[in-house]
Amino acid sequence: MSVPSVYEWAGGGPAFERLTAVFYGHVRQDPVLAPVFAGMDEHHAQSVATWLGEVFGGPADYSKHHGGHAHMASKHLGRHITEQQRRRWVALLMDSADEAGLPTDPEFRAVFAYYIEWGTRMALIYSGESPPPVDAAPMPQWGWGQTPPWQPE
Ligand code: HEM
């Protein structure tokens, strides 16, 4: 039996769209993050859903239509994101995953959290002093790694 991609397991594009819609709803109300996203453009939630879908093995639409990794990284330049803001971003996204009905199995949530931890730390690096060149890294791709879908024999 072939193993579905993390994207398929999550529920495909609609699942990531639900996730970011819920998440940015919380962000707008959050005292730590609302000021960071005050100027967010109206397509932001959809763009981040498209990005996440591609990272987890869905269609390469962010690379094809939104400027790929270099564009994403450049959006964080000069923002000087703090550790407190990063942690709040992670916490609200994890709460939103529950609210949006993403799968709750340990394997999916481990892979999801792995990318989000890495990605938010990269966002901080790009937002800070002396970021790496935005076009020096490829589009990240996250598979199941150590924790593929598991069922007892
Ligand atoms: C895994 C972590 C993250 C991912 C996947 C991500 C993804 C993205 C993407 C794809 C964009 C560009 C959207 C577009 O194409 O227009 C973006 C922009 C942005 N990100 Fe992130 N980001 C992450 C972490 C963070 C964190 C931790 C913060 C701050 C606490 C942050 C703040 C912003 C801001 C302020 C923008 C610009 C929004 C706008 O002007 O429309 N990001 N992010």
Automatic annotation (TrEMBL):
Transmembrane region(s)? none
- Give the domain of life: Bacteria
**A Pfam cross-reference name:** Bac_globin
Any one GO molecular function term: heme binding
Keyword Metal-binding: yes or no?
Answer: yes
Q: Which residues bind heme?
A: 71
What SUPFAM superfamilies has UniProt attached to this entry?
Globin-like (SSF46458)
- InterPro entries attached to this UniProt entry: Globin-like_sf, Globin/Proto, Hemoglobin_trunc
Query: Which UniProt keyword terms apply here?
Result: Heme, Iron, Metal-binding, Transport
In the record, which residues are listed under signal peptide? none
What is the name of this protein? Oxidoreductase
Q: Which organism is it from?
A: Rhizocola hellebori
